[in-house]
Amino acid sequence: MSFAAILPCLDSPQDPIVFEGVTAEAVEMLTHERERLTARIEVLTRNRDAVARYLDELRRRSAAAPRERGIDAAHRDDDQ
Predict the structure, then answer these.
(1) DSSP structure string for 10-43
(2) Element (H, E) at 8
(3) pLDDT tens digit string along 5-48?
(4) Which of 22, 40, 47, 70 has its CA at 20 to 30 Å from residue 29's CA atom?
């Protein structure tokens, strides 16, 4: 039995979920699929959060860079 036969909502959210004829094997298959999806979601979440931290750091550094360049320029002017 395919996922679409058990959970037609995977193809169309308007289709009803079918409960008839679901075997223990199908339940096991769905349980495995849920675990696989959960693992993928966890990886995607970690990757999203890492990208967000990277972007935050880039923004922080780019905001600080003009000030640092201004300080460097001021010090060079004082040295001359």
Answers:
(1) GT-TTSPPP-TT--HHHHHHHHHHHHHHHHHHHH
(2) none
(3) 666 666 666 667 767 778 898 889 889 989 999 999 999 999 99
(4) 47
